[in-house]
Amino acid sequence: MISIKDSSEPFRAFLGSILSIIEGEPVEPSQFDPSMQLDTIMEDTDDGPLPEDDIDDGSGVYVGSSSTSNPPMMTCSQAAHENINPGLMITSSSPDSPESFQLWVHLDALSNNTLALPMSDRNDLNGKQRLWLTRFVGSGSTGRVWQCHFDDSDDLFAVKIVELLCPSDADSRQRLQNEFNMYLALEAAYKSGQLCDRIAPHCYGAYEGDGVNIIILGLCDGVLNAWDELSAPEQAQVYKLVQDLHSIGILHGDLEPQNVMRAIGGGFHLIDFSQSTRHNCKENVVQNVTTPLIDQLHTPRPAAGRNDICSELQTLRNSLWN
């Protein structure tokens, strides 16, 4: 039971007016007392923000949450980490609304985040970049995806968000952390020269706040609805992406059309690595097929029982060339 009998007269009148419109409830009449004395609230001296002032009270619009509670540490000093990633502010408020009406969520980089944000011309007073959510793109088993941009920039990005609202959301948070670990592995492969072409969208880091975790990614140009949308050369491109992924020791774990996106400017990217695992692929074609030529890929399907074709590549092969 919630009672408002001890609430102030103005609040009871305000709540009654709302209920009278929405629920058709009768409004309790207010008694006007001309001799009523109003209290004067003395303004305290501003001694600067208190530690509790930085705690989000839940009044803002939470835009995501995910990632593990104890992420693995990378081989970079905490000081360097703090200099590269001072933090982030994110909002779904309109840039046209007054600043006093804008609701921001403050985020810090995950402890294993070694990836840098895109450059922005404007930060807040604490050096944090500001990210604006502009359009809802879609949702999946792990979180929601929004289109976004940074302050004073027309470049668009995607942000994957998981909110930790109930105990069951801890699984989504763990999957997002796992996904970020795979993006770190991909980035290491690009820098070392193991991969020449990008398998996935560019990742700009992972951040966490009070009940919300996010991953910031490059924007793609639409998701596949079915495998038969692909032309024969496109089928070969997608198959080659998965081969390259296996060649650096990653099993995607959820190869469906909705996890393949068209890259802006042409080609494809794999997305949603939340169920990915490390994998030692022994399939011969990972080494043998180095170019996406159709005649190389349309070879007779291996006989049942051959162990040089791993199950994920075999399933993809059957889906594309059935």
The CATH superfamily of the largest domain is known as Phosphorylase Kinase, domain 1
Structural class: alpha+beta
Q: N-to-C terminal Cα separation, in Å? A: 61 Å
Order of helices and strands: HHEEEEEHEEHEEEEHHH
Residue fraction in strands: 15-25%
General shape: elongated
Number of helices: 7
Highest-level CATH class of the largest domain: Alpha Beta
Tally of DSSP β-strands: 11
How many domains? The number is: 2
Short description:
With 322 residues, the protein is an alpha+beta fold. Helices cover 25% and strands 18% of the residues.
Structure description:
A hairpin with a 4-residue loop joins strand 3 and strand 4. The chain contains 7 helices and 11 strands. The longest helix has 24 residues. The chain is elongated and about 90 Å long. With 322 residues, it is α+β, with helices and mostly antiparallel strands.
Give the tags:
322 residues; alpha+beta; Phosphorylase Kinase, domain 1; Transferase(Phosphotransferase), domain 1; 2 domains; 7-stranded mixed β-barrel; two-stranded antiparallel sheet; 7 helices; 11 strands; 18% strand
Give the topology.
Blueprint: H1 9-22, H2 78-84, E1 88-91, E2 105-109, E3 129-139, E4 144-150, E5 157-163, H3 169-192, E6 203-209, E7 212-218, H4 232-247, E8 250-251, E9 260-262, E10 268-270, E11 277-278, H5 284-288, H6 294-297, H7 311-321
Parallel strand pairs: 1-3
Antiparallel strand pairs: 1-2, 2-6, 3-4, 4-5, 5-7, 6-7, 8-11, 9-10
Helix pairs in contact: 4-7
EC number: 2.7.11.1
InterPro entries: Kinase-like_dom_sf, Prot_kinase_dom, Protein_kinase_ATP_BS, Ser_Thr_kinase
Protein name: non-specific serine/threonine protein kinase
